[in-house]
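Re: your question from the hallway

Yes, I did run it. Sequences:
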Amino acid sequence: MDDSMVTVNGRSCTLRGVAPHTTALDWLRAQGLTGAKEGCAEGECGACSVLVAMPDGADGTAWTAVNSCLVPAAALDGQEVVTAEGLGAPQSMHPVQAALAAAGGSQCGYCTPGFACSMAAEFYRARRGEADGASEADGASEADGAGAFDVHALAGNLCRCTGYRPIRDAAVGLGTPDADDPLAARRSRPAPETVATRIEADGARFVRPRSLDEAFALIADEPDAAVVAGCTDWGVEVNLRGRRAPLTVAIDRLPELRGFAFGDAGIELGAGLTLAEAERLLEGRVPLLAELFPQFASPLIRNRATLGGNLGTASPIGDAAPALLALEARLVLGSIDGEREVDLAEYFTGYRTTVRGPGELIRSVRIPLPLAALSGFHKVAKRRFDDISSMAAAFALDVGADGVVAAARIGLGGVAATPIRARATEAALVGRRWDGEAVRDAASVLGSEGTPMSDHRASAEYRAIMLQQSLLRLFRAAAHEEVVPA
Amino acid sequence: MSGLADRPDGALVGVALPHESAARHATGTAIYTDDLAAGRADVLTAWPVQSEHAHALVTLDVAPALDVPGVVRVLTASDVPGENDAGAKHDEPLFPSEAMFHGHALAWVLGETAEAARLGAAAVNVAYEPLPSIVTIGEAIEAGSFQGIAPTVQRGDAASALGSAPHVFEGVCEINGQEHFYLETHASLAHVDPEGQVFVESSTQHPSETQEIVAHVLGVPNHRVTVQSLRLGGGFGGKEMQPHGFAAIAALGATLTGRAVRLRLTRTQDLTMTGKRHPFHAAWRAGFDADGRILALEATLTSDGGWCLDLSEPVLGRALCHVDNAYWIPDIVVHGRIAKTHKTSQTAFRGFGGPQGMFVIEDILGRVAPLLGIDPAVLRERNLYRPGQTTPYGQEVRHAERLHDAWARVRTEGRLDERRTEVEAFNSAHPDVKRGLAITPVKFGISFTFTAYNQAGALVHVYRDGSVLVNHGGTELGQGLHTKMLQVAATALGVRMSAVRLAPTRTDKVPNTSATAASSGADLNGAAVKHACDQIRERLVPVAADLLGVAAEDVRFEGGKVSGPDPDGTSLGFDELVEAAYARRVQLFAAGFYRTEGLGWEPGTMQGTPFKYFAYGVAASEVEVDGFTGATRLRRVDIVHDVGDSLSPIIDLGQVEGGFLQGVGWLVLEELRWDETDGPGRGRLLTQSASTYKLPSLGELPDELNVHFLERATEDGAVYGSKAVGEPPLMLAFSVREAIREAVGAFGPRGHSVELGSPATPEAVFWAVEAARGAGDADRDASAERSDRRAETAAGAPDRLADAGLAAARRSPRAEH
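Structure:
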């Protein structure tokens, strides 16, 4: 008998007997909490958003919005969850709910509970209103000042009815939490401890080991185990493709995978850090990644998805890989037999295959310092935010005082079976003066890198031309910066 | 003014109230159909077995499914006691022996859990005998594969007018479809009660027709079936016809097993099984005079109806009646036909053919303006209808002056003239990014073109405590119909909003209802609710006159008080009056009924007065196009829209804004892609999930959005002077497409005609930019090195456009003389 419990809206509920493939969404709905809705079952629409109490990195708690359709219910063991019903009731609405209702922010209402949760997460975000470079650059955040609401927090929630204007108005008109707001008060205490979990149902097991060594041992015994962290990819496999695993091993909260160090020679990012945590810890110190983060899926996904997971799935259209390739990142792979370090450029071997062995896990990502002076991340997709790349290109260039390119590293996604380095283009740039002619020459080389395909996102021709354009645009932006000092 | 349009003092219609369920929406306590089944262990789940071929004869072996633990039953054709058909046209077998599209449901598995039902469906063996398939409009035209009627709208002699026109252009446009993507997928929950009533909870816009289809599948009279529609998580037309079959499956399962059965489609099932906005193909020739006045139009519109008729005929009819949009076209002939293809059966979608019809004329004007050397805004304004003119189908364009009023107001308040100068300055300073600013009109006809649907019923109860319960035939899809109906009832009875409650829509309360569609929900049901309330009020007046000692004509009902001519004099509470009326044995409930008067439509000749009135609107949009990628950004939108005298301003504003952005999604972002190869996946929808079919998100919201209602706009033929608002604003989005066209044009030489793909995704816009640059390079005859490079990249573009069936807009030889 397991004694797995989760606190939902302040009430303790048992998770006993929940199947590893049961999502938090389905489990919550079966408890009678039907506010969270299934709109897509793949973390695209946000109708299932709920709040989870997560560590804020400073001994307090951050109310974090996540897609409950992608979180295994079993992963909530020991955690605290708040749903739209827990935020407020019709006669006593939470401030974000009252604002949404009064503004005409709901029409059919199906997406509204999810919006309320995403809005509440931003409402309770610590340091809200302080400068936020990424969103300001895009002109989407309100003027600086206490209480400024970053509407990007809602980028992972879709509404088909309203056209969003009333939702935006409701969001930017919010004040700050009252002094006696219980969820605000909860932030000053630590988030729930991570607990070891072992749940068995229908012959399948969900295990959250206590330590990395225990995880290594588990997967050494059962090579077919599904190793999950944020579950933003595995959840889609489970929901849309009916994937089931006899053993699911959750490694996302293992302390060994959550390290962070910013040294003189390099940066070490634990593979279990979520993209949101990595963004917060880096504080913009790696401009290329600062440019990447806001374009990586949606806030709801970034709150769960890990760096290790994005590299572990080895998707050719994962957005972290091109940026990390340009940064010459190396991966630390660990197993029961010890550790080894591999160059990320040597890591991918084919479509969703890598050098990572059966018993190995990604422990961390190492980024060497100093960083290249000139960098840029260029993503092309149908939709500006929360879309999968048609192609992505990341650049890191060193241009010497003599105006000659001393080093160039370019990572590409979406144009081959794996993320790749654009080595021919790099060679075409190095040793040339950083000027329009060299850039045009290199761009034509870049246009022939990889083997772009035609699919429902884009044609092969467009992808190839976008490769060229990405370098031209980098050059144009860099030239513009020289003329107009920031 | 008719009594229908008069507003009393203190009317609650016109007050800005939030949606009646807003607090429930925000707190997650508003209940939708499938929420009723959540956590119920006694409910079976139905799961479809879907075809993996676009067209094939199928034979099913369901035995393996029955061996799957938890599978209770597999529903197949032999289980149907009544008619094996799910459509109003009797051309939609519920259980087909011939798969007609990739994803077609062939059988349904009932399981104790969704997991069991899913595994059971996967275990059913399907033997396919593949047949030839048609998956594009082009293939259908080539094969002569059509279905249904082929109507023509005609006035004058277009052929001879084209023969003598100073300028004649011709071209082709392909118009993409659109997935509804209501956030709530299709859902039904059915059970048979102890009295033998089949009770179906359904996410349906058309409960009466859902009831009829369920009854005919079960082989029982309609009175045995009750359908309830609590509220829909969005409909947009996609739940007008499509829910019937799903409700029938749930009801059949419940009948056969004695258990409650739920059916809720996954997003991918919904995308691959249900109908969408019709894609259209149009071939046209248009003649203009030297000043850009449209002289004549000849066009053939072919819609992609998919595998069966559904609503394709009325959708096509409305498309033909909106090719003129807001423009006077003296000589015109427009032919329509419906392609039969092996795809989902396309259906109603907000605008119902109107958007596709208008697309044609807006595309023509946008393409020919540079060739005529006339500013597109001038070209459009010059051709707007004037008072006294009639449409090609013979209906007078009443209130045409409102088009001009709205146009002038957008131009003034949007500072269009100044901003166009600013845009030109910006464009000359920025080689890599260009802006465009365009203004377009909307004229949309209100009424069902199927005249019989223009009727509605209501049932209003007043209880002895003065509280009021309203039933009406319309469904709440999020459009705020129930909010408006509460306001209508409170206004008609002179009571407070808190005195009125609305009951969920049920077929045993109001029978034989029309679909909540064609933007008509408030017009029709509002008039019926008012009619019921008026009857009750008429019966209360003599009682009040007697009790107050005033003349009957002086009795006033307002704010829950009933008084004589002096509102501050003696008065009664509405509740007191009701109690007194009860004691005097006065009937305190009433059935209301309404039918739209003044309609006269001949579908055979496509002539007459199909519409009660027109809704007008004008929008101006400014966009910015990134020349590197073709990505567009919406900078500013100004809208003036005619909602008559608004029944509920927050609701109407929501319809205008939401409809507009949905139209933007259709025109610039949302892309349905099907496998058109001859490979094994032929006919499969490639964009079958939220990760591949992209809706507008918050990032698509314009930086600045100004929406105003047209003033002094009373519609005297509709309830309390209001106008329908659900569909017309969607078509304001053409301003965005035309603004993109202008921005793209700024990359090329003056006089370059810009052809835009549909939808105008970043890639489609990029190819148009390349074509514009290519035209510029050709003009300038630039250095060989540059033109080589550009010609290479541009060369792909015309070929691609030709592949897409887009011929260049060009002057015909005649125009050169």
